[in-house]
Amino acid sequence: MHLSTDYLVVGAGLSGLAFADSLITHDPEAELVVVDRRTQPGGHWADVYPFVRLHSPSAYYGVDSMPLGSNRIDVDGPNAGLYERATATELQTYFADVVEKLAATGRVRVLLGHENLDDGHLRDLATGEVHELEVRRRVVDAGYLEVSVPATHTPSFDIADDASFVPVHLLGDHVESSSYTVLGAGKTGVDAVLWLLDHDVDPERIRWVRPREAWFMDRARFQPLDLAVDSLEGFAADAHAGATAKDQDDLLGLLEDAGRLTRLDPTIPATMWRGAMLNDHELQRARTVTDVVRLGRVRRLERDRIVLDQGEVPTGGALHIDCTAHGLRNAPPTPIFADGRIVLQQVRHKTPPYNAALLGFVEAKRDDDETKNRLCPPNHYTVGVDEWARTVARTWRTEGSWRTEPDLQAWVAGTRLNLLASLPQHLGSERAQQALARYVGHVGDAVANLERIAAGS
Ligand SMILES: Cc1cc2nc3c(=O)[nH]c(=O)nc-3n(C[C@H](O)[C@H](O)[C@H](O)COP(=O)(O)OP(=O)(O)OC[C@H]3O[C@@H](n4cnc5c(N)ncnc54)[C@H](O)[C@@H]3O)c2cc1C
């Protein structure tokens, strides 16, 4: 088979689909082929643990042209008072619908179960057939930050054949163990702990291996629509901390005092910041597990002992739950727009759907790569909190540079992927005006001060 297209998008995960959706909306001529090795769309969401949910609200996740969920505020349960968050099954259905919608335009062809060979050819992974593909404009790399999840990754430590070990997505089948050890300090580790607690496992039967501590963001301050003022207050707190912090330690202290960053154990220094969100309810429950092993990373898991960087502990017969996959890859930054190529990366920090759709818009609406790269410099996705200053300053500096780009500003104001899109409807309240004044009053100084702090860290 010989195919010909304007754009080849490599990756039918959230990023590839959000880019494709945005590009065909804003460029009425563009034709795309989207290819993915997986046989289902949605990227890593096809392989997640069944009890995962978005950590952020559905209202600003997905592709721009198709809402996800019904913009409902949960009235009960652990997310009460906050906007709904899609489950894995809802996300899988959603991405299947997105593919159907894109295909119905007649301008997008999605080839699942196909691998891009990077030499003008695609391989059908079911049949082994290789197809020639002519790309008239660009290849879009939507797998540069490809996600790694426990179901598909290879753990970075040795596992003895007789060790008691499961990846987190198989947890349900093994719930009858007398005790459990959760491996991993990130959001997946928190989810595994909460799942065990939800299934009436006593916290004393849970041990938690946390090689390093993570910072989490408070979901209550990343709310869209009717709760957008809560988010604005959060950003105002960021701007205040950014403008007034003396150094990196002071910055973290201010952010923690303002509730912008939070950690499981406030007595232990935390270094990791992947951008995962928790609410207070989840945080308090996770804190009930107090048997925490802090001896570095696991090197080897055996039936009777765990060997770690800085020592070993007996397993006590526990079932070990793997939550150690790294999530989004922190690949080095590279220009997003280059000859014949687009490499999807972050522009605004920690918002993959917004970034992918933004890049689709800019590709459609600007002519030359110099302008596109000026408007959308890559904002390196990193996992260390020492990068908070750099990455937040870069977001604000970049978005500030859009002041002279009315169509881009209009896109930002109108996209449902922008969590503050509804803010203008709420600016009548005194609370909103105070938050806005605080934000505007500090953000300029914050950029300069955060860049100074970043240069020193
Ligand atoms: C558990 C979890 C929860 C998350 N929750 C949120 C959240 O609530 N909110 C939020 O904003 N973000 C969240 N994230 C971040 C999340 O990673 C992104 O939102 C998004 O799903 C990432 O999509 P992606 O398309 O960039 O990557 P992926 O999902 O990794 O998709 C990349 C795709 O590219 C394909 N591919 C790569 N190379 C090739 C090739 N050569 N040929 C063919 N196909 C190829 C891969 O098969 C893969 O399917 C979460 C991440 C994780 C791990």
TrEMBL record:
InterPro entries: FAD/NAD-bd_sf
Domain of life: Bacteria
A Pfam short name: NAD_binding_8
Name of the featured protein: NAD(P)/FAD-dependent oxidoreductase
